[in-house]
Design brief:
- α1 packs across α2 and α2 packs across α3.
- The protein has 70 residues and is mainly alpha-helical.
- The protein has a two-stranded antiparallel sheet.
- Helix content is 61%, strand content 9%.
């Protein structure tokens, strides 16, 4: 799992898998589908893909792109 992530404004901050799960869950709420457990599952898949496909510090855009593929 990445230790850091690059924000859109260029700052590098600690990576937090829960932020991915929360964003996915909010999308589920907005579309009235799925639930928290599924959001956690997708977040895990995204983190696995980050480990496999991104070298160095991933950006928020990398997370979003991989989230769409999960």
């Amino acid at each position: 799992m990445p230790q850091k992530i690059r924000k859109r404004d260029g700052r590098i901050v600690d990576f937090d898998r829960m932020k991915i799960a929360k964003a996915i869950f909010k999308a589920f709420i907005a579309t009235k589908s799925q639930g928290g457990e599924r959001a956690e599952e997708i977040a895990g898949q995204v983190v696995d893909l980050l480990d496999k496909r991104i070298t160095g510090i991933p950006g928020v855009e990398d997370v979003q792109t991989l989230s769409r593929k999960s």
